[in-house]
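Review form for a predicted model. The reviewer records the input and the model, then writes brief findings.
Reviewer: anonymous (R2)
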Amino acid sequence: MGRTNAGKSTLVNRLVGEKVSIVSPVEQTTRNTVRGIVSDPRGQLVLLDTPGLHKAVGTLGKLLNRMARRSAAGTDITCVVFDAAQEPQLEDIGWMQRIAKEKPEKVVFVLNKADRAPFFETMYREAWDAAKAESKSEVKGEQRNVENSAVRLETPTSPVWVKCIATTEGGAKAVMDALFDFAEEGEPLFDDDIVTDYPRKLAIADTIREKYLAKMHQEVPHEMGILVKKIRESNSPVWEVDVEVLVNRVSQKPIVIGKGAETVKYVRKCAERELSDVFGVKVALEIWVRVEPNWMKNERLLAEMGYLGELV
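Model under review:
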């Protein structure tokens, strides 16, 4: 977990060895919790790639933040990714404060983008020391305020700090080693040839949205939803997939379509090629753009896109 655009999805893809999460320089690219499965001679890791924590605006933003926080519950290892090429932000400090307060047993702090300069490792370590001190002060305050208090100072969490370059071969090796050092004995949860159990409809929708992000950057993406309505397989060697692209306003529709349908054609071509490689079968997309005012507040649509479903 970590704040938006810290490199979580890139790191997960690197660890898994295949692309299971979409990536983009645009913030809030990841909108669902995606499981990536690492099969290694040392054993198996199941990674949860969560939406990035950010200052939420509207129903969807709040859902994504809630999903990120809830996904952290019940995991064996907490791995927080920081963009250490930037100074610590409020969301980074928020994760540190939460960990200092909740004291999970196994924590890895990943300082990503270690190839950048400047690199703010010292500031992140100082921020963690401040979060620990604040948490310790709060516990002491509780002890003073409660007569015959049973509250005791617990052993603070001692995270393993790892520097990482998630975009390069070998750049994530230290992260993999730290996770396996923490991993416990157990039976594998998935077969060795499975890299994700992410639902097919959501994977197709994410791929299409990624191509729109690459084409449009900041123009509309945060107000655009992708809805995979139907996948027709039958006995044909081609999967025919019906897709709706939802926008909030009429003025956004021509932007998403593009002049002479240029944008839709680009997205369809790129997504079809990638999806055909992923699923091993030719994929033909039929993309329609629909104006759906306030779709981000529509619980039925949000559920259909997986935002209200099982989080872990």
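Findings: The beta strands are 34-40, 43-49, 78-83, 107-112, 160-163, 224-232, 238-247, 282-291.
Further findings: The chain has nine helices and eight strands.
Recommendation: see findings above.
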